[in-house]
Amino acid sequence: MNWGLTVKRSLSVVRSAALIGLTVALLATPAAIAVAAPVAPAGTAQEGTTQVEPTPGEKAAKEFEDASIAIAAAAKAAKDAAVAAKTPAEATAAKDAALKVKADAAKLNTAINAFLDNAGAETHEVRIKALQALERARTAAGVADEAIAIAEPKINPQPDPEPEPEPSLIFVSADEARRGEFIAVGVFCGEGEAGNFHSDAITFDTSTLFREDQAWGIGGNVKSDATPGTHSVTATCGDEKLTTSFKVLADPAVQATPPKADDVRRKTVIRPKGRIETGGGATAGQFV
Asked: Where does the signal sequence lie (predicted)?
């Protein structure tokens, strides 16, 4: 037997069997050698898929949102214009813009409320967005009111009112005095001139009468025969009559000393006081 020839034939058979097996395997799994198809990035629509359209409720909520943002911007612009207005024409334009904002906000509020009344089937997010637009429109209407309040005085500017005159008043240098004792009376007139000083218990000396601006003062002595008790003191400021009072003490009378004009002027001081201190007057008198 020729062993060399036999070995060669055996190796040839083995190689043929191996090639046949590899061919069968490749034919059975073609995907193993196929080129991989490209994968679409995440989030993009694959060929043949359909985009999800927003629902009517979602569209309406978006429209409400956009409209309310525009109204809020218009309200701010109207207020800024009212603040900056220097002429009646500019103020009128700002007011007109604010009035339009209020009208647009009212229409939008009506539309949103009608939508919410029938939004039972809508999602929570849709209803929240609609409510936010509603509140934004209401706030814009408030800003528009502020713009109108700023603009109106500039459309028809009014002159500053005349200051109210200070109230007139009368006072005495002492709440109590003995007969024969010196006493002085002061008057502050908001309007007009002081005069007609009178008291049944005082003898006034007209030579002591003096005036400084709207203040008058006069001195006198308590009458020696004045009865103890309360007595009135009166004067006038123009047509206005002023009244106060003081008390004559029952103590023994003192020697009356005629008052001097310089003494009355030096001792009489009229100082501004607050309303609380004077019981309602803007000015109070004080004798020192």
From this structure: 1-36
CATH architecture of 169-287: Sandwich (2.60)
d(CA 125, CA 283): 66
What is the domain partition of the chain in residue ranges?
56-155, 169-287
Distance, CA of 2 to CA of 7 (rounded, Å) = 9
The answer on pLDDT for 204 being more than 90 is yes
Q: Are 152 and 88 in contact (CB under 8 A)?
A: no
Mean pLDDT of 5-28: 39
CA 103 vs CA 71, 122, 213: distances in Å: 10, 28, 57
The tokens 């006038």 sit on which residue?
236
CA distance 188 to 273: 12
Q: Are 176 and 247 in contact (CB under 8 A)?
A: yes
Alpha helices in the chain (DSSP H): 3-28, 56-84, 88-117, 124-155, 261-267, 275-278
The verdict on pTM exceeding 0.85 is no
Work out whether strand 240-248 and strand 176-177 pair parallel, antiparallel, or are unpaired. parallel
Q: Which residues contact 275 (CB under 8 A, 6 or more apart)?
A: 281, 282
DSSP state, 48?
T
Q: Please, what's the largest Cα pairwise distance for the chain?
A: 184
Q: What is the pLDDT at residue 173? A: 86
